[in-house]
Known about the structure:
Blueprint: E1 2-5, H1 13-23, E2 30-35, H2 38-50, E3 54-60, E4 63-69, E5 94-97, H3 107-121, E6 130-133, H4 148-156, E7 160-164, H5 165-170, E8 181-183, H6 185-193, E9 198-199
Parallel strand pairs: 1-2, 5-6, 5-9, 6-7, 7-8
Antiparallel strand pairs: 2-4, 3-4
Amino acid sequence: xxxxxxxxxxxxxxxxxxxxxxxxxxxxxxxxxxxxxxxxxxxxxxxxxxxxxxxxxxxxxxxxxxxxxxxxxxxxxxxxxxxxxxxxxxxxxxxxxxxxxxxxxxxxxxxxxxxxxxxxxxxxxxxxxxxxxxxxxxxxxxxxxxxxxxxxxxxxxxxxxxxxxxxxxxxxxxxxxxxxxxxxxxxxxxxxxxxxxxxxx
Length: 201
């Protein structure tokens, strides 16, 4: 399978190279496209799907590997420049955890919902750039939490896990942090301000 290395390239270069490569292969054949920024990944994926090309995406940290399979004998003829988004148009989202339960109902139900929510994050693309934990939400990232493993897997995929240091001190659990890093209000506010949007379960 041919690999198109688009790391470090800005739109429309990845689209141009992808279009050329797809048009050079036969129906049923695939190419791999390597991209290291979210905006270009979204643009290339949308371009291919709109042109009837099957796409599968795998993310490892900041690197995206797109496997594109040609399903039609027709040439890809879309205007690649029309798919280039302006800088910042697809800023990644951030998920904030202000509690160790989800919603405002019974605590037992809230814990069940939170576990389901965290375990589902990895299934929805794109992944968030950060998960921020403050107030009682820090209980999800310390010893005794049932969510250490799925959060650790998110961290390994490039999601930054930030835990409020003041909150860890308040609950006297800073020495029990098991995933992520101790953060402060300046970094947390900077992260939220730079997000495309913020999700709070």
